Amino acid sequence: MHEDVERCVRAVRSKDARFDGWFFTAVLTTRIYCRPSCPVVPPKVANMRFYPSAAAAQQAGFRACKRCRPDASPGSPLWNHRADSVAKAMRLIADGVVDREGVPGLAARLGYSVRQVERLLLAELGAGPLALARAQRAQTARLLIETTALPMAEVAPAAGFASVRAFNETVREVFALSPTDLRTRRRPAPDTPGVLSLRLPFRAPLRPDNLFGHLAATGVPGVEEWRDGAYRRTLRLPHGHGVVSLTPQDDHVACKLALSDLRDLSIAISRCRRMLDLDADPVAVDEQLRSDPLLAPVVDAGPGRRVPGTVDAAEFAVRAVLGQQVSTAAARTHAARLVRAVGEPVTDHGLTHLFPTPEALASVDPAALAMPQARKTAFRALVEALADGSLDLGVGADWDKARADLLALPGFGPWTVEVIAMRALGDPDAFLPTDLGIRIAAQALGLPGTPAALVRRAQAWRPWRAYAVQYLWATGDHAVNRLPA
């Protein structure tokens, strides 16, 4: 979008927050870059330059605006709804792959050479993988500086910097302030020692009912809970574990994070954003779905629905198998038994375990599972494929290959594969035409009642059929559609 100058100028002049994260505006006279909705008086058009990423603006020598904080914009929705190599690279960078494995590790996961990856990212984002990872580290550093009392010598490695010198130089270049000066803007310390309090922005509107209702209603006891108006759960992270509390607010999601290792901060934030689908563009999604006159009234009744995701794709896939042809309560019971048997204990008020790893689940005797033999076989095949790496459901996974690999497992049909594609892989076009709730909703709205006919009708909803699923499910009277009391 950054190449469409007229459209960008209109967005800046109207201070349209819907475009925050889509592009960044740099001002030649001040050497500052902003988000489109920055409240300051827009500069002259001749002095504007537009960049596709914060990293590209930083690399061109511009510093972040202190007023609108463009580095804290919602992420571009492109990286979550596209399945190409650039989108996979962006999801992997957000998940900390460059910091942990370097650019060669990123390239290996994508199946390209380092030079090819750099060329792809430079062409589309105006910055290479190192610059993109550096921008992410700068944002993490700012969060730690402003929301904690940690000494700078501890903030630097926690934010992913190899040295305090690199940390100091980056903060000065990006924010035009020293780390000490940023610290003077520090917010009041959180009520609970060791807990980071953050705001997760999103593009309005956001309908929290089905999003948080789904997570709460299907939550696994010991791993997830709804308490005091917040969804809470444990997190398994690269350097340790964490507990997150997420509370929907009018213009953001309040996030409280307790981490055993602060190096996991940016990764935890990225995974929570993906779980809540906060980088989605609801205006574009709803506009497309409203084009169907039978679906339009449902969209208008509750615009801004998101697709509930997950912080752990392997965990969700296992839970999808446990939930085959049983009630939500039964699925939660099966999962809770596995958690108590082979999950890792954690210490927290109300939460007791991390969800088991595939390796731990592979050690479970299927005979001990209280479910039909076909589902035991499916469970065993899934956890073994996840444990030996033959099945990849990670953020950089190839969606088509993952679908094919899942379908090849015993006990996996289209419904199970598509629900995993929708909520674990994050495919916005995943569709469940055989789902009973979808078929009942479709018939009630006058949409085709048979799966084949519904698939034909849903061609007009692409590439947002997963969102159509949320709107159709929302017509039913089920706990997943309501915020808990």
Can you offer a commentary on this structure?
It comes from Saccharothrix saharensis. Its EC number is 3.2.2.21. The chain has helices at residues 5-13, 54-59, 78-81, 85-94, 97-110, 114-125, 129-147, 152-158, 164-175, 179-183, 208-217, 265-276, 282-290, 296-301, 313-322, 328-342, 358-362, 373-388, 399-407, 414-425, 436-445, 451-457, 465-473; strands spanning 24-27, 32-34, 48-51, 63-64, 195-200, 224-227, 230-237, 240-248, 253-259, 344-345, 353-354. It has 485 residues and is of the alpha+beta class. The protein folds into 3 domains: 5-72, DNA Methylphosphotriester Repair Domain; 78-183, Arc Repressor Mutant, subunit A (Orthogonal Bundle); 270-481, Hypothetical protein, domain 2 (Endonuclease III, domain 1). The chain has a 5-stranded antiparallel beta sheet with strand order 5-9-8-7-6. Strands 3-1-2-4 form a 4-stranded mixed beta sheet. A hairpin with a 4-residue loop joins β8 (240-248) and β9 (253-259).
